[in-house]
Design brief:
With 289 residues, the chain is α/β, with parallel strands linked by helices. The protein has helices spanning 3-10, 62-76, 78-89, 124-131, 150-154, 167-177, 200-215, 232-239, 258-288, and strands at 121-122, 139-146, 157-158, 162-163, 187-193, 226-229, 244-245. The protein has a domain at 121-271: 3-Layer(aba) Sandwich (Oxidized Rhodanese, domain 1), CATH 3.40.250.10. The model is unreliable at 16-23 and 59-96 (pLDDT under 50). Tyrosine protein phosphatase which functions as a dosage-dependent inducer of mitotic progression. InterPro entries: MPI_Phosphatase, Rhodanese-like_dom, Rhodanese-like_dom_sf.
């Protein structure tokens, strides 16, 4: 073996003291090769000086984030903020919850929430003010529809109320008359009620709006402004007896009218069944066409 070969075999294969800090570009570094670190592995803690205090970390709650986000939108997104305001005023879905059925005007009477979300309710005080003419600047005429049974109506009703105890006949009569205001700047409004305004009046109101929609090209309506008297005749009688004639109140379940109540309910169910049958036939005819 030659001397040069023996020296080569006795020398280490890699110089552990190689300078890795040179600016030359390295194509490959072995993972096992140690590397000199230019910075310590552990970060040294420096105490804040009085002139440059360390800022304290603040825990951001959800409300704080929301407030900051709203503030940022107010500062930088005036258009977005305005559109959001408009959308809130329009009920969130782009349709104004305060517009009447044909979307042409806002409601003439102040409304309140009630049992049925899709209907507009007025209070007994608003009903009293309507009877006293306090809305005459907007309302030319109004019709109070009493949806109670005849013996209830005869036992006491709102002055001038129209007795229409049957849902189907009430809808047919109202749509056949097609009442309307003579002045284009004023309204004709309908106010429906029963004893509590929980079932009969809302049912008549829903059917009237549904049939009215089917008779007209959307969104036109014969009666675009419908209201339900919240609390019904019972609450109105206890608050404003002066607007009732006679000034009395006959409940639906009065013990003297049990037989009449049974007859009225049987008749109403028969008419409701007939209405469903006609609707089913009309649906089948449309499907065949």
């Amino acid at each position: 073996m030659s001397c040069s070969m023996a020296q080569l075999l006795s020398e280490p294969l890699m110089n552990q003291e190689v300078d890795l800090s040179s600016g030359g570009r390295r194509l490959f570094r072995s993972p096992s090769m140690p590397e000199r670190l230019a910075r310590p592995l552990k970060r040294t803690s420096t105490s804040p000086s009085p002139a440059n205090p360390r800022p304290l970390k603040r825990h951001c709650t959800f409300s704080a984030v929301s407030e900051e986000g709203c503030e940022a939108r107010r500062r930088g997104g005036g258009l977005t903020h305005s559109l959001c305001d408009v959308e809130q005023q329009l009920g969130g879905d782009g349709i104004n919850a305060e517009l009447i059925g044909d979307f042409s005007k806002v409601h003439a009477l102040p409304t309140v929430t009630g049992r049925h979300q899709g209907l507009k309710y007025i209070t007994v005080d608003t009903m009293s003010a309507l009877l006293e003419g306090k809305f005459s600047c907007l309302v030319e005429s109004f019709v109070v529809v009493d949806c109670r049974y005849p013996y209830e109506y005869q036992g006491g009703h709102i002055k001038g109320a129209l007795s229409l105890p049957n849902t189907d006949k009430a809808v047919d009569q109202l749509l056949s008359q097609r009442l309307k205001a003579h002045s284009p700047d004023k309204r004709l409004v309908l106010v429906l009620h029963c004893e509590f305004s929980s079932e009969r009046a809302p049912r008549t109101c829903h059917l009237l709006r549904s049939v009215d929609r089917s008779m007209n090209e959307y969104p036109a309506l014969h009666y675009p402004e419908l209201y339900v008297l919240k609390g019904g005749y019972r609450d109105f009688y206890h608050s404003h007896q002066e607007h009732c004639e006679p000034q009395s109140y006959c409940p639906m379940h009065h013990e003297d009218h049990r037989e009449e109540l049974l007859r009225c309910r049987t008749h109403s169910r028969a008419l409701a069944e007939e209405r469903r049958r006609r609707h089913h036939i009309q649906t089948l005819v449309k499907l065949k066409l």
